[in-house]
Amino acid sequence: MSKKKEYKLSIQENNLLKAVICPICGEEFEPVIGPQVFIAGTWDPVCIPCSNKHIEPYMWLAQLVAHHGFKMLMISQGSFESKKA
Ligand SMILES: [Zn+2]
């Protein structure tokens, strides 16, 4: 039971809103719409606590930047410009 297992995870765009069982911890949860962690090569969503345990933080960051980066860039550039002027 306490045997360590390595999980290969990937972040994919989720558009299904329904409760599922996390394949790692067996807890029921509702995945979010948008970037969501899955077992790599499947569409089995992984809950947030397990995602945080098994995935590198930079992968989240990369996905968030890809998702919102352009908008954020526009906003930050805009505020930077107005501060400077
Ligand atoms: Zn879990």
Annotation keywords:
alpha+beta; binds zinc ion; 85 residues; 19% strand; two-stranded antiparallel ribbon; 2 helices
Could you outline the blueprint of secondary structure elements for this entry?
Layout: E1 9-14, E2 20-21, E3 28-29, E4 34-39, H1 48-54, H2 57-84
Task: Catalogue the ligands.
Answer: zinc ion
Main beta-sheet strand count, sense and barrel state:
2 strands, antiparallel
The end-to-end span amounts to 62 Å
Q: What portion of residues belong to β-strands?
A: 15-25%
Content-based structural category:
alpha+beta
Would you list the SSEs in sequence order as H and E?
EEEEHH
Describe the structure.
With 85 residues, the protein is of the alpha+beta class. The protein has one domain. It is 41% helix and 19% strand. It contains 2 helices and 4 strands, in the order ββββαα. The longest helix is centred in the last third of the chain and has 28 residues. It is globular, with a radius of gyration of 17 Å. The structure holds zinc ion (ZN). Zinc ion (ZN) binds next to helix 1.
Could you write a compact summary of the structure shown?
With 85 residues, the protein is α+β, with helices and mostly antiparallel strands. Helices cover 41% and strands 19% of the residues. The site of zinc ion has 8 residues, from helix 1.
